[in-house]
Predict the 3D structure of the following.
Amino acid sequence: MSLTKSVDLRTSDTNRPFMNGAEELPPFPEGWYFVASRESILREKLIEKTWLGEEIVVWCDDAGRVCVADAVCPHLGSHLGPEVGGQICNGRLVCPFHGFEYDTTGQCVATPNAPAPRAAKLKVYETREILGMVFAWFGSGGRPSQWDLPTEPTNGQEGTQSPIRRPTALHSGSSRFCSAMWNFSFLLGFIDGSGLNRSL
Ligand code: FES
């Protein structure tokens, strides 16, 4: 059984768009993107999916903390998804190759035969949850989140709407405005990180 996958979903360099003839645009605007519902994470235990061109895994530990991480083991590169044997044990993601165990911070916390190497850490994404929907932050070049999501739905009162529903200013940057509008469509359920796939 193969433990690796050949995945290259990014646009090839020669096809990537350019701005002003020089600056390369990121493949997606920065922002919070829908990943999965908590209900589906709890039901499936371990989810693997393609999200914004990346292979990711999603799971939840016993305390309810959700982790969204790249589906590649930092030890020797095994895929971590359930299709190739990745599984959740006591809230930890267990690599199917050598059994390294990762907690929801992405840190390797145990191995079958030796102390856990501190350098073994998954690439994880910041997450937020609204009404049982889990979102993860996509940052250009790995930048941390630049704005936050509301923790609750707004009630329509003046001054209570989220920065996503009301992008603060066009002059703050057209890319941020586009990102906000893009993410607003995600919140409305038009699309998710897998691509265009839904309508109201
Ligand atoms: S490749 Fe994952 S533990 Fe070795």
About this structure: The radius of gyration is 18 Å. The longest helix spans residues 174-187.
